[in-house]
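Z., the sequence and structure:
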Amino acid sequence: MPLSRRSPALLAALVLLGAVTACTSTAVGDPEGTTTNSHPPTSEHVPEPAPPQRNYVKLTTENGRQSPGTVVLGGEDAVYNYAPAVMLENGKVRTWWCSQMGSAKPNGDDILYSEGPTADGPFSTARAVFSGSGSSFDAMHTCDPSLIKLGDTYYMYYTGASRDNHANGSSVGVATSKDGLSWTRANNGQSIIAPAGDIIRENTYGAGQQSAIYLDGWIYLLFTDTTGYSAASNGAGQFVLRSKDPLFASGIEALGPQGFKPVENGNRPRTRSVVEAYSSDWMWIEAASAFAIAHETVGGTTITFWNKEFTRHPYEAVVIPGPWTEGPGLIRTPEGHAAINTTDPCERVGIDVLRSTAKDGSGAPTNIHHFGLDALGLQGCATVAEARVLDGFSMPSPERTSDVVSGGKIVRFERGSVAAKYATGMLARRPKIADSLKVAVRVPAGVPAVRNPARQLGFLVNNKLMVMNGLEAADLNSSDVTLVTQEEWDRFERLTT
């Protein structure tokens, strides 16, 4: 459960009480639960899900990496630092995590923020950006952040608790922001997911430790519920809800034994767990149409893969080795997806996490380090949807020219050096799926070019403006350049595929 400001001796005792550390520990004074059904599932018999198919692909790993030391640490009197949410945005690694600062009121868990140029830092001085409300379900504690960005709005899903002795009182809330720093509680400050109460167990944590992904119009939410019907006897388990409403106020579907089914609300029952774990994080790998769930095991952070329908494991699990004391935070895009690999987007994915690695004098998890590796052998880009990861990449063309994928179609350049000035990445090999993409635009050598006062260059292809990356593209393409005013530049219709 969330820890409040206590003596080091009591903090250490709390950490040792539960199967999980810090927020997931059973608190002193919490009632001892029993393993009886207090709210059994609505049907008399809950069917078991079909066992996942095991014809998975074995991935290989390379480029193991680890930061030389702590990269994220709370300032002031923050005793613990764990459960990071990590977003790769605009060339920065932004991270929010669970800690506690005496200057942030009320006394309880706070969500801190820091950012850096890489996962190895250096990160900016930590500051508290979200704390207990003083009332409602999150009166004392806010913890376990997970963020996605939809349009210009950030949504932060977090665990809230009103007191230390909460007796299954942890619940999930959501807040919104335009910058990721100043937050407003959504859903009228009320929780969006509460403990199901299917089975009351000795682990009285409740519901929380959520992780959000935006995919095809849906927000997928992975979370712990120690009272869930399908959790393990110690409360470990990860459940999945999805909705097109970021506040999960309507249109909710729950993952059960027969796949996703509509439910009245997000509170019960929990009839299927996708991995027996606490404090997990996940992301979507677009090139391979697969979910990757990061959870801690004896050897480090295990990555378990599921296909989109949760009917099979497409890949054998891989492990990011190294020490840990609390759950990992995957480095993800603003939508919660894996970053696209710039050298081999169809076959390779980088998997990087931030995770706490030590305990301070009180026994609380702290010292967040960076760990990662590359997983190879995805056999991705097999469908047009998966081929979206190729957008912006140049590659050899079957016509001895160069192709650049743009908007799911091909822009074919007569000269490869010019294609490189339009592309954001270059591939030495042409993925097979590229042959099924339509050639929408051809850019011949010598096509007219224009330049505006801001020194931007564009080709006029079919009398439409194709903006290039660099003035040298004109020389490389043997194109004559005409200087135009900014007004003329703005009037040109942009070339689209």
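Residues 1-45 have pLDDT under 50 and may be disordered. Helices lie at 8-17, 416-422, 472-476, 486-491.

Let me know what you think.
H.
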